[in-house]
From TrEMBL:
Its cofactor is Zn(2+). Pathway: One-carbon metabolism; formaldehyde degradation; formate from formaldehyde (glutathione route): step 1/3. Zn(2+) 2 binds at residues 51, 53, 56. This is Putative glutathione-dependent formaldehyde-activating enzyme. Belongs to the Gfa family.
Length: 194
């Protein structure tokens, strides 16, 4: 359908660079030319993935975000935190964005939720190398809701697979199992210790 496949994400379009398993963290910066919001991450991230949902921050022209998680206690606002605001205070994930450039620095869960205790971050905002590479692609069909022609999605899925990212229309089985375990334990259908 396309002579050139639309940009999935700059970290994926031309092949994925593997991370360093011993990498220990770095700083994220917003896109402002000066007085950048700086967030320091004191460890590597986990479950890094491409996400097609409408809520995650995406670089200009990209169909997907790349987003991973990190424990809340490893996340520190280290400069210009006064420029941060919560994009949608009613959302399960409160995305803290720079009010000047719009970049999301971290998404935090404040209510009862399977992923509470983890922040969502975009490590492309860092100039350090070694962050975990994307592992899979989530919410692929959601790009259609945002205006992507459904006839092109097959090609997007093929490109994702070619780059080593299994496409899913929700999250990966590992994360869906975590959510279901949490829900089962909360309702008492599963014992709290497994
Ligand atoms: Zn900014
Ligand atoms: Zn998303």
């Amino acid at each position: 359908m396309y002579s050139k496949i639309p940009s999935i994400h700059p970290l994926i379009d031309n092949g994925i660079t593997k991370g360093d398993p011993n990498f220990s963290g770095g700083k994220l910066y917003c896109h402002c030319p000066s007085k950048k919001v700086e967030v320091t991450l004191a460890s590597n991230i986990a479950h890094n993935h491409a996400c097609g949902c409408s809520k995650c921050w995406k670089p200009k022209g990209a169909l997907f975000s790349v987003v991973g998680v990190i424990p809340v206690d490893k996340v520190f606002i280290t400069a210009n935190g006064d420029k941060l605001y919560v994009v949608d205070p009613s959302a399960a994930i409160q995305r803290n964005a720079c009010k000047e450039c719009g970049v999301h620095l971290f998404g935090r869960i404040v209510k009862d939720h399977p992923f509470k205790g983890l922040d969502f971050v975009h490590v492309e905002l860092s100039d350090s190398k070694g962050w975990q590479e994307p592992q899979f692609a989530a919410f692929v069909s959601s790009i259609i809701e945002q205006g992507f022609n459904p006839t092109g999605v097959k090609e997007i899925r093929e490109k994702l697979k070619k780059e080593g990212l299994q496409p899913y229309d929700v999250l990966s089985p590992t994360l869906m199992d975590l959510i279901a375990t949490y829900t089962g334990q909360k309702s008492g259908k599963l014992p709290s210790k497994l």
